[in-house]
Amino acid sequence: MDDLMTPPMTSRSRSSSTSSFDESYFFKTYVPLSNLPTPPPSSHSNSSCPPAPGNLLFLGETLDHDLLGPATHLTNLIPSATSLTVASVPLVHAILTRTHLPLEIIALAVCILDSLSSRFALSWRQGCPLITPHPPAPFSLSEEREEVQHIDSIHPELIVLAALVLATKFLDDRQRTTREYAGNWGRGFWSCEQVNFTERCILENLQFRLLSLNQYIIDALEDMERAGRQVSPEIRADEDWDTDTCFGSFGGNKSAQKSMGCGRTVLDLDSELTPAEASMVKDSLVAEVESSEIGSQQQNLPASLSGTVETPSLSTIIP
Q1: Closest Cα to residue 79, out of 186, 198, 170, 209?
Q2: What's the pTM value of the predicted model, to 2 decimals?
Q3: For 172, left (φ over 0), alpha (ψ -120 to 50), or beta?
């Protein structure tokens, strides 16, 4: 009776010592990983993932360092709800380098993106074309289907490209086709249907009210300059972008604005000066004030004494 209730004992020992390791049993049951069958590709294979932004650069293409600030500012203005894919600053930087656009047109694109409402993201995600046709091949199978993308596999930098195209069409009278914009600026990474839809979606969100206002353009230029200084600390604080832009056509003549301060230098209150620069500015202002006071004293003296007055040196005036 006891023999029937007792479970059968295994012949192998449960001891963890090395002496109980059965080498022959191990080699009989061991299967190397290389002999395992290859699993079939899943529906979300790597081919559907967007390539790295670095692959969008032409061979030998160099990025313009002066456009790093505008590229950073444009990337930050892309609505975050449009895609789960994180927008890439190098990709926008490469697009700006290929466009060769003046900063005023880029500033208008900044104003366009800054004016988008929260409803733009949903409209763009629901209606953006997801089918990218393959180029025709001579030996392609007739039953081969077109690749269907997911909305999150489309790089959101397409929105920046569409804003640049709208700004160019608004300020430049030269007519270009969408194929040229998508091929030359976007390197064919987005289809013409996607570019056209994004342009139309932006215009519908703005209710087709696109207007280039001087003050908004000036503010956008300042924002891009500020973004460039934050990204590149090596840029000097006194760097003037007005020489490379048409700032005078929007904000008036800068030399005329500087001459409206009674001969004194007009300082930007938002700019940060180092202690050494602040001391130099203070010394120059003190010297200018003292020299103007000395000139007024000489004019008030009689003619007989005007030639005998000794002008004190600046070392005795400036502490």
Answers
A1: 198
A2: 0.55
A3: beta
